[in-house]
Amino acid sequence: MSSDAQGFRARPATRDPSVFRRRLVGTIVVLAVIAGGFAFASVMQGPRVNGGEIDALRATRLAGVELTLEVNQPVAAFDADAVSVEPEADVTADADDRTITVTFDEPLDYATEYTMRVPGVVGAYQGVPSTLEYRFQTPDEYAYTLQRRSDVGEADIVQRKALGGSETEIVFSAPRIQEFAHVDDLVVAVTLDDDDTNSLFVSDVRQGEPQEFGLLPGSLVRDLAASTTNPLAAFVLTTPGVDGARQYDNALMSVDLAGVAEAEPLLWHVLAAAAPLKA
Q1: pTM assigned to the model
Q2: Among 256, 251, 240, which Cα is nearest to 276's?
Q3: DSSP-derived 3-state class of residue 149
Q4: Per-10-residue mean pLDDT, the chain, length 279
Q5: Under a CB-based contact definition with an 8 Å cutoff, are residues 159 and 171 in contact?
Q6: Which of 237, 232, 251, 159 shows the shortest CA–CA distance to 198?
Q7: pLDDT value at residue 132
Q8: CA 126 – CA 148 distance, rounded (Å)
Q9: Strand, helix or coil at 13?
Q10: What is the pLDDT of residue 25?
Q11: Is there a contact between 232 and 256 (Cβ–Cβ < 8 Å)?
């Protein structure tokens, strides 16, 4: 090996500071252009919907249910008369700060996707109008029926079927069922005991095993009914006589079913959960 080869030493590469500065400035310029583009697009787009809220089940049963739209900035103006719904529905609309409230004049259809459009919305920060759009789905409704089979030696059943479906689901069964009522997915059933007195059960369709309501043995229940809009049931109760006196004699009782859908055992008693309705 030659002395020239032995004397060779690699020299570290040196960076040109001007090249680094040019690259840094170029990067900053690109980021600034991108940020400016987003800001410009935001200004040109106008207000946008952050989200909406509606009780879709209640909207299928009652008129006057409201849809609230949350807007990303305070609303300065919008064309309330031009608000439209598809499928068609009569509505009224007003705005308050960042919220637009749309009220449905009539109950909505079951199992239907609705599209709400609010045109001409001008925000407090930008003068560019925009059309807000929001979609929501109403749930299907179920038809509940009682099929009596005790006369042929089988248990009576309460079953339900979606109006838009074909499958039937058994939601409660007992050797003899006198009557039933339901509140959404809760089924309240009056059964007949061997001595023709009554027991009362509450069943959550989503959880399975029915829970017995704590009636006194020998009680009689009739005229069971339930609210279609609130978790309430009512019935007429007669308790057995003790020393010639009855605690309740054809008394109209109300039961608040709120909370029954929670995964908790039902520890109800007549005095705690059923209160006579005042005339």
Answers
A1: 0.62
A2: 251
A3: coil
A4: 50 57 59 51 73 94 95 92 95 95 96 95 88 95 92 93 86 96 91 94 84 88 90 90 86 77 34 41
A5: yes
A6: 237
A7: 94
A8: 66
A9: coil
A10: 54
A11: yes
What's the rounded Cα separation, in Å, for the pair 138 and 102? 16
* Omega cis (within 30) before 87: yes
Rounded Cα gap, residues 161 and 145, in angstroms:
9
CB atoms within 10 A of CB 188: 25
As a whole number of angstroms, the distance between CA 220 and CA 190 comes to 9
Kindly compute the dihedral angle of the four CA atoms of residues 24, 26, 31, 33, in this order, to the nearest 10 degrees.
Answer: 160
CA 276 – CA 270 distance, rounded (Å): 10
Instruction: Give me the pLDDT at residue 277, please.
Output: 43
CA-based nearest residue to 132, from 112, 118, 144: 118
SS3 208: coil
Tokens of 65: 């249910």
Structure tokens at 34: 């991108």
**Phi/psi class of residue 208: alpha, beta or left (left: φ > 0; alpha: ψ in -120 to 50)?**
left
Q: Where are the beta strands (DSSP E) in the chain?
A: 49-53, 66-71, 75-77, 84-86, 91-96, 99-104, 113-123, 130-137, 142-147, 156-162, 168-174, 177-183, 186-192, 198-204, 211-213, 220-226, 232-238, 251-256, 274-276
pLDDT of residue 26: 58
Residue 226: CB atoms within 10 A of its CB come to 20
Tokens 């061997």 label which residue? 194
CA distance 216 to 251: 14
Handedness of CA 68, 72, 74, 76 (dihedral sign): negative
**DSSP bridge partners of 38:** none
Query: Which tokens sit at 69?
Result: 């739209």
Residues in the chain: 279
Q: What is the pLDDT of residue 24?
A: 58
